[in-house]
Amino acid sequence: MNGIKNLVKIIPNNFKKNFLAISMLAFLLSAFELIFLKIIHSSLNYFTKPTTQDFIIQFLKNYEKKFDISSLVIILIFIIFFIKTFNYIAHLKMSSEFNEKCSANLRYNLFTSYINLPKLFRIRINIEEKIKNLEEEVRNLTSILSSLNTIILETILLVVVSIYLMTVNFKILIILLSLFLIL
Predict the structure, then answer these.
(1) Separation CA 173–CA 63 (nearest Å)
(2) Residue 9's closest CA among 158, 153, 143, 109?
């Protein structure tokens, strides 16, 4: 817990806002993932049992006069898939930019604080060793931020998909969760 508090102290406020925006994009990404799962579920139900009534299929039947409903279902799957994929790419881009900018800012702040130390202290200590240590610590922090972002995204996805599975079939959810606990 102390490590997280220290991490929050090190990161400037504008980077905290960026991290919050990345987390919100992860929620949006999970919403599109849920929509994609629902459309896949509805389309599979429609193609296996055409008499099944689903609100997505009912919505698409309004456009049945212009297009075939099977092609509309497939087009909708592709549209949602591409939107979901573009959101995921945007999330990855924002995450990598955040990590790079945060590490550059941290390097700058640490090096300026080193330069502002008294000259006698700087003479006694090898600058190459300090720069090597600085680079290593910043790399460690960058990997921590990247891992934290991945954990947040995957946790959100797990919760959203679990909630969706609860509404579809509770037994499948119990089986999958028990498999996760075993592994």
Answers:
(1) 34
(2) 109
**pTM of this structure:** 0.73
CA–CA distance, 70 with 76 (Å, rounded to integer): 10
Hey, how many other C-beta atoms are within 10 angstroms of the C-beta on 63? Answer: 11
Q: Is residue 82 very low, low, confident or very high in pLDDT (cuts 50, 70, 90)? A: very high
Main-chain dihedrals φ then ψ at residue 134, nearest 5 degrees:
-60, -45
Work out the angle at residue 18's Cα, subtended by the Cα atoms of residues 17 and 24, and round it to the nearest 5 degrees. 90
Between CA 74 and CA 25 the distance in angstroms is: 26
34 by Cβ neighbours in 10 Å (0-12 / 13-18 / 19+) ranks as middle
Using DSSP, state whether 169 is helix, strand or coil.
coil
Alpha helices, H only, 11-68: 13-48, 55-61
Take residue 135 and report the two structure tokens written for it. 């680079």
Query: Whose CA is closest to 28, among 72, 86, 106?
Result: 86
Residue 13 CB neighbours (<10 A): 7
Residue 52 has phi, psi (to 5 degrees) of: -65, 130
- Express each pLDDT in 113-154 by its tens digit: 777 777 766 667 777 777 787 788 888 888 888 888 888 888
Q: What are 23-54's pLDDT values in tens digits?
A: 888 888 888 888 888 888 888 888 887 766 77
